[in-house]
């Protein structure tokens, strides 16, 4: 998973980020800043994306 890849996030986390991003845009923030703030907030609240389980032999 490369940096910026949001595939590990749940649908709920993606919805939360979209709502936060929209709200930040309404406040006059740029596109880039609103996305950064949205995902930072989601990570803080939920603890980040789901971790992949590692196989143990």
Describe the structure in your own words.
The chain has a domain of 35 residues. Helix content is 56%, strand content 0%. The longest helix has 16 residues.
Write the layout of secondary structure elements.
Blueprint: H1 11-26, H2 31-46
Helix pairs in contact: 1-2
Largest sheet: none
Euclidean distance between termini CA atoms: 23 Å
Number of alpha- plus pi-helical segments: 2
| C-alpha geometry | elongated
Q: Report the uncertain regions.
A: none
Q: What pattern of helices and strands is seen along the backbone?
A: HH
Total DSSP E strands? 0
Percentage beta strand:
under 5%
List keywords for this structure.
57 residues, elongated, mainly alpha
Give a summary of the structure in a few sentences.
This protein is mainly α. About 55% of the residues lie in helices and about 0% in strands.
């Amino acid at each position: 998973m490369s940096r910026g890849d949001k595939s590990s996030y749940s649908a709920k986390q993606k919805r939360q980020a979209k709502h936060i991003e929209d709200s930040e845009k309404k406040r006059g923030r740029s596109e880039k800043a609103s996305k950064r703030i949205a995902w930072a907030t989601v990570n803080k609240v939920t603890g980040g994306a789901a971790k992949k389980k590692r196989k143990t032999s």
